[in-house]
From TrEMBL:
Gene3D superfamilies named among the record's database cross-references: N-(1-d-carboxylethyl)-l-norvaline Dehydrogenase, domain 2 (1.10.1040.10), NAD(P)-binding Rossmann-like Domain (3.40.50.720)
Keywords recorded for this protein, A-Z: NAD, Oxidoreductase
Full protein name: Mannitol-1-phosphate 5-dehydrogenase
SUPFAM superfamilies in alphabetical order: 6-phosphogluconate dehydrogenase C-terminal domain-like (SSF48179), NAD(P)-binding Rossmann-fold domains (SSF51735)
Source organism per UniProt: Pseudonocardia sediminis
Reaction(s) the record says it catalyses: D-mannitol 1-phosphate + NAD(+) = beta-D-fructose 6-phosphate + NADH + H(+)
EC number of this enzyme: 1.1.1.17
Cell wall biogenesis/degradation as UniProt keyword: no
Residues of the Mannitol dehydrogenase C-terminal domain: 289-477
Pfam families with a match to the protein in the record: Mannitol_dh, Mannitol_dh_C
Domain Mannitol dehydrogenase N-terminal span(s) in chain numbering: 30-280
Length: 492
């Protein structure tokens, strides 16, 4: 049994495990990344590792940064393993393809030493700050999409004499030092699942900087770049069974491996202030305009995840592949994509949308990935706002169909009541869980109560056509259940 904490796997390898052959000792940090979770390690870190394997990008190693209490475990595991971890590709036939990744060359835990994090970003060698801080990690109003200066973390970091504790406080302090020292700007690169993720990052960081100092805000707005990107790879949470499989089948011990599907895609706007790695040589699509690609992904893949998540869970499923393998649910998902989401998209250069949608159903149905509905239902108020409601609003404006999307929202409302159709408790994992559950528990008497969460839905409850479709779906859920609702929409 080999262990990543011993380092011997790097030089000796492990049977059946792909181990890059590059020397890590001379790699320097060029990217500081906030939010080192499974997705970052299955995506950006993997692309940089591919470049290092090809003998490139040795000045683009990654320094990971954690800011949340929960990140301390990542600090411990990566510290023990010298930043190494195993990326395990799960194929549909059950086979595993593990690879040791070596692009994470440092890890800093900001609460322990915020000054060290600030100076790492202020270092001239750092030219990109990248982010996977989740859709809810940006201090924005979910309805307007604008920077929210009343966010508690923002207010705390802007208090006189405060030590920065948020991503925004840490990065803006580093940018202030770069400006004062003449080091120059850098690029802030969001890799989160949001339409216009770079534009959102720009609003938050420039808004924060302007509140701190007007001149600094203007400098950030004029010189720092915020490329938009579309990122795509299903990365389920690592389970104990994944660690056990790695140990039993490959004799490799890893405290926190990452599991992922075979598919990966990254479409990135070429808008960098201080250079970038040659990402295109690792398979990244570097383009002038990422909007068509991100709309395709957010409104097809991500919104369809929401479509199967709540209704599938209520119907008794617990894994994504179980829902996607059910013919009735699969037809419902494809109908949502074809009839409601696709009409809201722009033409996507180089993409056959029919083939892309068929591939999505195949990806969802991959039993090897074993992605849980609980994971994709996490943070619903942020995800529904970004993925599904834009489709609803555009279809309402255009007079298009909205019955399936309304059924998804009703499914979430029923899910938020806190019990499934077998009367088993459902753990609510959402920043607005308390408010949403209170509203959901009123909806049997007040059918539109859940839509009263205006921070999520705005004035959607006042739209007669949506309200009618939503209440019909909710009534069916309460009376007949999720499968009956899905069947009625497929057959109707």
């Amino acid at each position: 049994m080999q262990s990543l904490d011993s380092g011997t796997v790097w030089t000796q390898g492990a049977e059946g495990v792909d181990v890059p052959g590059y020397d890590r000792s001379g790699i320097t940090t060029g990217i500081v990344h906030f939010g080192v979770g499974g997705f970052h390690r299955a995506h950006l870190a993997m692309y940089v590792d591919a470049l290092l394997t090809a003998g490139q990008a040795r000045d683009w190693g990654i320094c990971g940064v954690g800011v949340l209490d929960g990140d301390r475990r990542m600090q411990k595991v990566l510290g023990e393993q010298d930043g190494l971890y195993t990326l395990v590709r799960k194929e549909a036939d059950g086979s595993l393809a593990p690879r040791v990744i070596g692009s994470l060359v440092e890890y800093l835990f900001a609460p322990d030493d915020p000054e060290k994090v600030i100076e790492k970003i202020a270092d001239p060698a750092t030219r990109i700050v990248s982010l996977t801080i989740t859709e809810g990690g940006y201090a924005i109003d979910q309805v307007t999409g604008e920077f929210d200066p009343e966010d508690p973390g923002i207010r705390a970091d802007l208090a006189p004499g405060a030590t920065p504790s948020t991503v925004f406080g840490l990065v803006v302090e580093a940018l202030a030092r770069r400006r004062e020292r003449g080091t120059g700007p850098l690029t802030i690169m969001s890799c989160d699942n949001m339409q216009g993720n770079g534009d959102t990052a720009r609003r938050v960081f420039t808004g924060f900087a302007a509140l701190r100092d007007g001149d600094l805000g203007a400098w950030v707005a004029d010189t720092v770049t915020f490329p938009n990107s579309m990122v795509d790879r299903i990365t389920p949470a690592t389970a104990d069974t994944d660690r056990e499989a790695l140990a039993e089948r490959f004799s490799l011990r890893d405290g926190w491996p990452v599991v992922c599907e075979p598919f990966t895609q990254w479409v990135l706007e070429d808008h960098f202030a201080a250079g970038r790695p040659p990402f295109e040589e690792a398979g990244v699509q570097v383009v002038d305009d990422v909007v068509p690609y991100e709309l395709m992904k957010l409104r097809l893949l991500n919104a369809t995840h929401q479509a199967l998540g709540y209704l599938g869970y209520l119907a008794g499923f617990r894994y994504v592949h179980e829902v996607a393998q059910d013919p009735t649910f699969a037809r419902f998902l494809r109908d949502y994509m074809d009839l409601e989401a696709t009409p809201t998209l722009r033409p996507v250069p180089g993409i056959d949308l029919g083939e892309y949608k068929a591939t999505l159903i195949e990806r969802f149905a991959n039993p090897g990935v074993a992605d849980t509905l609980k994971r994709i239902n996490f943070g619903s108020s942020d995800r529904i706002s970004l993925f599904l409601l834009p489709v609803v609003r555009q279809q309402l404006a255009d007079g298009g169909p909205i019955d399936r999307a309304a059924a998804v929202v009703a499914g979430w409302a029923r899910y938020a009541e806190g019990t499934d159709e077998q009367h088993e408790a459902i753990e609510q994992q959402d920043r607005l869980a308390e408010q949403l559950t209170e509203l959901a528990l009123r909806q049997r008497e007040e059918p539109l109560a859940f839509l009263g969460a205006t921070s999520v839905f705005g004035n959607l409850a006042s739209d007669e056509r949506f309200a009618a479709a939503y209440t019909r779906a909710l009534e069916t859920l309460h009376r007949d259940g999720a499968r009956a609702l899905v069947t009625s929409l497929v057959d109707g």
